[in-house]
């Protein structure tokens, strides 16, 4: 069992490292600079929504790049048409500008803006964030009472963001797990909360009310 867990960790860290190396090439990143996404086969979003999310991320990144050039490092992560913005921008006005750009993208339902007004992070910091994401994902896989692929994990400057359509129990449990990972400074839950009944019948296809909880699970 221990050997199996180590193999799982190695595979996840390798995948996360690949994402991180790609993210280092450009200042704007689709799906987050340190993200390991869910697999379509077991995703709690509909297949159509998953395709929409990919389109949202691509369109948002292109528009932000046109507006901001190389001045900003912005990660765009869409889950069930809710967009999470992480990264760094030079000014508060730039933060609001980026948010408005994303809100204007077709199919976007809401935006959670957690951009830092500060200098862009270093490659070293982004590598650390990628490693943390891999460790959080591996810990979720090892938790036998959770379905790891129900979660999307994003890490920025040691802050872990958890996204997904989950029950209250799953939200609490996943945050506890993420908080226990070395290097995690804070956990922010950006969930859509569903009932146990919805989960049992396969999760309703329509978007659930959004739970934006940036103060949770510190």
Spatial gap, N to C terminus: 31 Å
Q: How confident overall, as mean pLDDT?
A: 84
The major pleated sheet works out as:
5 strands, mixed
Low-confidence stretches: 11-26, 35-40, 204-211, 214-218
Percent of residues in helices comes to 40-55%
Please, how many helices? 6
SSE order in H/E notation?
Answer: HEEHEEHEEHEEHEHE
- E-strand count: 10
Q: Examine the secondary-structure arrangement and name the CATH architecture of the largest domain.
A: Orthogonal Bundle
Question: Which structural class fits the helix and strand makeup?
Answer: alpha/beta
Rg, alpha carbons:
16 Å
CATH class identity of the largest domain: Mainly Alpha
Structurally, how many domains make up the residues? 2
CATH names the topology of the largest domain as Helix Hairpins
Work out the strand percent.
Answer: 15-25%
Global outline: globular
Keywords: Signal
Signal peptide: 1-23
InterPro entries: BON_dom, Lipoprotein_DolP, Transpt-assoc_nodulatn_dom_bac
Pfam families: BON
Walk me through what this model shows.
This protein has 6 helices and 10 strands. The protein has helices at residues 2-23, 47-68, 92-103, 123-142, 168-179, 196-200; strands spanning 28-30, 35-36, 73-79, 82-89, 110-113, 116-117, 151-156, 159-166, 186-193, 210-213. The protein is globular and about 45 Å long. Strand 3 (73-79) and strand 4 form a beta hairpin. Helix 1 (2-23) packs antiparallel against helix 4 and helix 2 packs across helix 3. With 218 residues, the protein is of the alpha/beta class. It starts with a helix and ends in a 5-residue tail after the last strand. It folds into 2 domains: 2-33 and 40-117, Helix Hairpins (Orthogonal Bundle), CATH 1.10.287; 129-213, Histidine-containing Protein, Chain: A (2-Layer Sandwich). Strands 1, 3, 4, 5 and 6 form a 5-stranded mixed β-sheet that branches. Strands 2-7-8-9-10 form a 5-stranded mixed β-sheet. It is 43% helix and 24% strand.
